[in-house]
Amino acid sequence: GLADRLQQAMKNIRGKGKVSEADVKQMTREVRLALLEADVNFKVVKSFVKTVEARAVGQDVLKSLTPGQQVIKVVQEELTALMGGEQTKINFALKPPTILLFVGLQGAGKTTSAAKLAQYLRKTHNKKPLMIAADIYRPAAIKQLQTLGAQLKIPVFSMGDKVNPVEIVRQGLAQAAADHHDLILIDTAGRLHIDDNLMEELEQIKTISHPDEIFLVVDAMTGQDAVNVASSFHERLGLTGVIMTKLDGDTRGGAALSIRAVTGTPIKFVGMGEKMDALEPFHPDRMASRILGMGDVLSLIEKAQASFDEDKAREMEKKMRDVSFTLDDFLDQIGQVRNMGPLDDLLAMMPGANKLKGMKNLSIDEKKIDQVEAIIRSMTPSEKNDPEIINASRRKRIALGSGTSIADVNRLLKQFKDMKKMMKQFMGQAKGKKRKNPFN
Ligand code: GDP
Ligand code: MG
């Protein structure tokens, strides 16, 4: 993937005490190939590489005490700039309601994203959302929105599929006013390809609803196509933001990197899965760090805080920081961590996790959690606090007591050890992040 390729390109330069212009050229050549291979727009790549090169061979970088790290810092900063620099927040109406219009091709994730965002803004901004079902063309599109609405307890306005979408929106807005909704999300139809009728309908919906945001929903897996689609929609409708879906999938990542540079429209949210809570605000700097394998510590901690109660999260942070995490804590966290989503996703966010040899051992088979619990419960308090003392005879006793095998006990102890090692790494970098220079 892109991350692997870029990390490889950075590897040679990272630890260097002396970096020459030739080293920089070599690195940017590899970066250029990695970006092109990830389907980043070639014009974007060209100007990106030019900027990085100019900055990297600058006097202050190559003559600094840590030139290799400074060069990587330049790459990280320029990747961040490419994706828009700062996080771009939702534009709420000064006078409610705030109206969000979702547009895009069929299957991009409009309906799913509208429901996800409705729930997200209800939770984070205390909004009272109404969703309007204005896709009358796709079979079962209305039913899909209604099902999601029922699941989230968010009302859906619909008039079946025999009424013109523009009229549906008009009446939906009136209904929202009568029921005092301060957030309206309009789900529209997509096509397999951009066509004129679709654009015209969307223009009419835009004219009567005066949306505060026109979100283009695009599928990250479609690569360069996503960028082309964005350009066409932007020309006709004037987009205010992009929601990029399916970043959890096997995408080459190019679309996330070029869409802002090509269209000038910022990515505001990313979809990270099919579940209703799998939507995240987009942070260019964090994404850049993630791509460069520096991990996304802040997103990880935010995610932890969203699903843990605050005290627990603080406690966990402290324990990770001190690396005083015991097997008891491990057991305690397993339950909570399960609420955060698939464990593999979480591990992927940890710095260096993708480079770790033992990565496979670290991914925890969710079905085996009961077994893990039994093993830990069969340990004495001193064993739990200091697993190093668990010798062969203790392993045998624990296996017997928990109804597992010695191999199972060994595996768990190995996992725990790897996890602690990773935490140490991970908190080291997290601390670095808070200091001025994240690369020391
Ligand atoms: P629409 O035609 O644009 O309204 O697209 P839908 O909202 O119906 O989504 C199409 C499919 O993509 C559905 O199966 C969704 O569950 C799936 N989907 C949407 N967003 C994501 C995402 O972020 N990740 C993954 N893995 N699937 C998604
Ligand atoms: Mg839909």
Automatic annotation (TrEMBL):
User: Which subcellular locations apply to this protein?
Assistant: Cytoplasm
The protein, known as: Signal recognition particle protein
| SRP54-type proteins GTP-binding domain ranges (all copies) | 266-279
Q: What is its main location?
A: cytoplasm
Q: What class of enzyme is it?
A: hydrolase
The gene name on file is: ffh
Q: What is its EC number?
A: 3.6.5.4
* Quaternary structure annotation from Swiss-Prot or TrEMBL: Part of the signal recognition particle protein translocation system, which is composed of SRP and FtsY.
Q: Which UniProt keywords apply?
A: Cytoplasm, GTP-binding, Hydrolase, Nucleotide-binding, Ribonucleoprotein, RNA-binding, Signal recognition particle
Q: Which reaction does it catalyse?
A: GTP + H2O = GDP + phosphate + H(+)
Q: Return the domain comment text from this UniProt entry.
A: Composed of three domains: the N-terminal N domain, which is responsible for interactions with the ribosome, the central G domain, which binds GTP, and the C-terminal M domain, which binds the RNA and the signal sequence of the RNC.
Homology family: Belongs to the GTP-binding SRP family. SRP54 subfamily.
